[in-house]
TrEMBL record:
Keyword Nucleotide-binding: yes
Signal sequence, renumbered to the chain: none
GO MF annotations, alphabetized: ATP binding; biotin--[biotin carboxyl-carrier protein] ligase activity
Protein name: biotin--[biotin carboxyl-carrier protein] ligase
TM ranges: none
Keyword terms: ATP-binding, Biotin, Ligase, Nucleotide-binding
SUPFAM superfamilies with a match to the protein in the record: C-terminal domain of transcriptional repressors, Class II aaRS and biotin synthetases
């Protein structure tokens, strides 16, 4: 299986915040590798892509893995300015917007975001829709005390039906993209993410508007699984300025929930 083209990606993102691009055949976790680098003093703006992750993780420590050559596993490091630190929860949401934009641009598939950052695909005729990407954003502290975000995205490209982890998952190929190009997807994703991160620091209202335009959850009837087996049913009516989902129940009460509060959120 041909790896994503490191030289082509690095050349295409020259002039953005991404100053170093590394593609490796295998690693434990791209997020863990970059977080270790941050703590050792590496400058933000690094990109690490692995063909295979042997210890990849999703939210709530769920495992995230795929056979070689079937996924774009990509992590980046992003400086978190002090002024933007209160909005750090938005980082994974902004990343989701970039992933959706890249999928649309490279494959032409219809993609959207399930709050907070699951990339969902509508299937082409005869294809299989569902979740094709997940995002995990973590914070690491550099030696001088500055915060750096480590953001990992796993995008299923050519994952076969027999290999999808759950029935609700899919890949670009299963949804109808004939030959997803991981190099092109990485380039588009990194460019869109660079622009989205600029909006996150400089124009938070614009970043939120872009997210709401891509989010398919707002307006849906949803069932929310909370800790201690509590279940909330209602309508997702908004995503607030802090990136939290707002769910209105049948009595009209609004519940504001962060990603850390929610175990699962599904259409009702």
């Amino acid at each position: 299986m041909v790896l994503p083209d490191q030289a082509a990606i690095a050349a295409a993102v020259r002039g953005t915040r991404w100053h170093q691009v590394l593609v490796v055949p295998s690693t434990g976790s791209t997020n863990a590798d970059l977080a270790d680098g941050v703590r050792a003093g590496d400058e933000p703006g690094r990109v690490l892509i692995a063909d295979v992750q042997t210890a990849g993780r999703g939210r709530h420590l769920r495992p995230w893995s795929a056979p070689a050559g079937t996924q774009l596993s990509i992590s980046v490091t992003v400086a978190v300015p002090a002024a933007a630190a209160p909005r750090a929860g938005w980082l994974s949401l902004v990343t989701g917007v970039a992933a959706v934009a890249a999928v649309r641009e490279v494959t032409g598939l219809s993609a959207g975001l399930k709050w907070p950052n699951d990339v969902l695909l509508d299937a082409e005729p005869g294809g299989r829709g569902g979740k094709t990407a997940g995002i995990l954003s973590e914070l690491a502290t550099a030696p001088g005390g500055n915060l750096v975000a480590v953001i990992g995205t796993g995008l299923n490209t050519t994952l076969a039906a027999a290999d999808v982890p759950v029935e609700t998952a899919t890949s670009l190929q299963l949804a109808g993209a004939a030959d997803p190009d991981r190099t092109a997807l990485a380039i588009a994703y990194l460019r869109h993410l660079d622009a989205g991160l600029t909006a996150w620091t400089d124009d938070p209202a614009a970043a939120r508007a872009e997210y709401l335009a891509a989010c398919v959850t707002v307006g849906q009837e949803v069932t929310v699984s909370l800790p201690a087996d509590e279940v909330l049913r209602g309508t997702a009516v908004d995503v607030d300025a802090e990136g939290r989902i707002v769910v209105q129940d049948a009595a009209g009460k609004r519940h504001v929930l962060s990603a850390g509060d929610v175990t699962h959120l599904r259409p009702a």
